[in-house]
Design a protein that fits this description.
Elements (H helix, E strand, L loop, with lengths): L3 E5 L3 H13 L3 E5 L2 H8 L6 E4 L2 E2 L2 E2 L1 H10 L4 E6 L4 H9 L4 E4 L4 H15 L6 E4 L2 E4 L4 E4 L2 E3 L3 H12 L7 H9 L9 H19 L4 E4 L3 E4 L3
Parallel strand pairs: 1-2, 1-3, 3-6, 6-7
Antiparallel strand pairs: 4-5, 8-9, 9-10, 10-11, 12-13
C-alpha cells in the first residue's frame, strides 16, 4: 500500500512544513485548505491517512469526520488542532477520529503517530480469518457469524481482530489501548472506557453465538478463548 496522506490544513506555512517532512519520510502528500476542497478530492480517491485541522475557512473540521468514515471506513483520521481541551479531544474521538495531536507538535511525533495508525489499520496480510463460527474478511473489514453479517463499529472490529490474532493470550488494558486507540490515547487511564467497548463487543458476539468468548482475567486484562 502506498503511504499516501491527505492534509487538510489552511495554515500554508504549517502545511508546507508538514508536507516537506513527510515526503522526505517516504509519504505521498495531497493538500487541501478547505472542507469543500477536501471532500472533492476524497470522494474520488482513497487515502490511508488524513491529517485534519479543525479551524478551517468554510467550517469545523469535526463535521468532516462522519463524511470521511462513511466513504472510506479504513481511512485513519488524525486531528491536528490548537484546541487542547479534553472535551475537544473527546468530541473528535467520539465522532470517529483515530488520534488527536495538539499544536504545536514535533514532526517526529506526528510521523510516529501516522506509522502507528498504519500498523493498526493494516497489520495483517491474511484475507480471511476464522475463529470457530466467526469469519473475518480483512479486505472489506466485514464480520460474519454463522454466515450472517454482523454490524460492528470500527473499534469493535479492531478489538475483535486483535483478540482473535492473539487467541488464548492475555491482553492487558495498555496493550489494547496501544493497538486499537494508540499509546497516547487520552483514555489510557480510563478503565471504564475500555470496558464499555469490550462489553459492547461481547454482547454482539453473544447475540449471534450464544457464547461469551471474551474472558476477563482479573488483575491482568482480557483474552479470547474457544469454549
Amino acid at each position: 500500500m502506498k503511504k499516501e496522506i491527505l492534509i487538510i490544513e489552511d495554515d500554508l506555512s504549517l502545511q508546507k512544513t508538514i508536507v516537506e517532512f513527510l515526503e522526505n519520510s517516504g509519504f505521498v502528500c495531497t493538500k487541501a485548505t478547505t472542507i469543500s476542497m477536501a471532500k472533492e478530492i476524497f470522494e474520488k480517491k482513497f487515502f490511508p491517512i488524513i491529517l485534519l485541522d479543525l479551524g478551517l475557512p468554510d467550517g469545523d473540521g469535526l463535521d468532516c469526520i462522519s463524511f470521511i468514515k462513511s466513504n472510506w471506513d479504513d481511512t485513519g483520521v488524525i486531528i491536528i488542532s490548537a484546541r487542547e481541551k479534553l472535551e475537544d479531544r473527546v468530541d473528535g474521538l467520539n465522532l470517529g477520529a483515530d488520534d488527536y495531536l495538539v499544536k504545536p507538535f514535533h514532526l517526529s511525533e506526528l510521523n510516529a503517530r501516522i506509522n502507528a495508525l498504519l500498523r493498526r489499520n493494516f497489520h495483517t496480510d491474511k484475507i480471511n480469518i476464522i475463529f470457530e463460527n466467526i469469519e473475518i474478511e480483512t479486505q472489506n473489514r466485514s464480520v460474519k457469524i454463522n454466515g450472517k453479517n454482523v454490524d460492528l463499529s470500527k473499534k469493535e472490529y479492531d478489538l475483535l481482530l486483535y483478540f482473535i490474532e492473539s487467541e488464548n493470550r492475555v491482553l492487558t488494558k495498555e496493550s489494547l489501548f496501544e493497538h486499537v486507540w494508540g499509546e497516547n490515547s487520552v483514555f489510557m487511564d480510563n478503565s471504564d472506557f475500555i470496558y464499555t467497548h469490550i462489553n459492547r463487543l461481547r454482547k454482539k458476539l453473544k447475540k449471534y453465538t450464544g457464547k461469551n468468548y471474551i474472558k476477563t482475567v482479573h488483575g491482568f486484562g482480557y483474552k479470547i478463548e474457544i469454549h
